[in-house]
C-alpha cells in the first residue's frame, strides 16, 4: 500500500528563521500533494498543494517543492513566526481516488 | 460562510456500546470524507460519500459504517466499541468527489472506557 512519511518527529526553529519540513512518499502514482497544519483542538488546515505536473509552488511565506524522481516533498516556511507552531502533515492522493494518505506528522516549535 | 461542523465535540462511551457522529459540510459541498486520528496511527481514511453513495472505503472493520443524507450531511456509526476506537474523528468536505479543496472540521473526540 501507499506510504507517506515524515523524516523527523519534531523541529525546533528560532523565530524569524526559515523552516524546512520534509516528507517522503512511496506511491509513484500519486499526483496530488497537500500540506496541512493542525493546531491543538482543531482539524487540519490546508496550507498549500501541488500537482505532479509541477515541481514548485509558492504561497504566502510558504513554498512546496516536489521531487518526483526521489518521491520527496518539502514545505518551506519563510520567516517562521510563533503562530506557525503546530503539527504539520503531508498528504497525497491519486486523481482517480479521493482518499488522502497522510504522513505521521511533525511538530514545529518556534523559539522566541 | 460556515465551515464544516462536527457534533458532538466530545464523547465518552463504554466498551460494547455504539456511537453516532455527525458532520455538516460546507454549504454546496457534496463530498464528505471521514478520517480517524490517533497518536499511533496518525490520520487514516475511513470512507467517503458523494451524493448519498459511498464511493471509497478504508481498511476498517465492518463495525465502522456511515451514510450521507440528501442535504449532504453525513453520519458515521461505530458499533460494539473497543478501547482502541478512542480517537479524534475528523470529517472533511469538498465540492466534488476529489480531494481538491478539502476542508476539515474540528473533529469529535471519542473516548472509550
Describe the structure in your own words.
The complex is a heterodimer of chains A (112) and B (113). By secondary structure, chain A is an all-beta fold. Chain A has no helices and 11 strands. In chain A, the strands form 2 sheets. In chain A, strands 2, 4, 5, 9, 10 and 11 form a 6-stranded mixed β-sheet that branches. In chain A, strands 1-3-8-7-6 form a 5-stranded antiparallel β-sheet, with no helix packed on it. In chain A, strand 9 (86-94) and strand 10 (97-102) form a beta hairpin. With 113 residues, chain B is mostly beta strands. Helix content of chain B is 0%, strand content 53%. Chain B is built from no helices and 11 strands. Chain B has strands spanning 5-7, 10-13, 19-24, 31-38, 42-50, 53-57, 64-68, 74-78, 87-94, 103-104, 108-112. In chain B, the strands form 2 sheets. In chain B, strands 2, 4, 5, 6, 9, 10 and 11 form a 7-stranded mixed β-sheet that branches. Chain B has a 4-stranded antiparallel β-sheet with strand order 1-3-8-7, with no helix packed on it. In chain B, a hairpin with an 8-residue loop joins strand 9 (87-94) and strand 10 (103-104). Chain B starts with a strand and ends with a strand. The mean pLDDT of chain B is 94. Chains A and B meet through strand 4, strand 5, strand 9 and strand 10 of A and strand 4, strand 5, strand 9 and strand 10 of B.
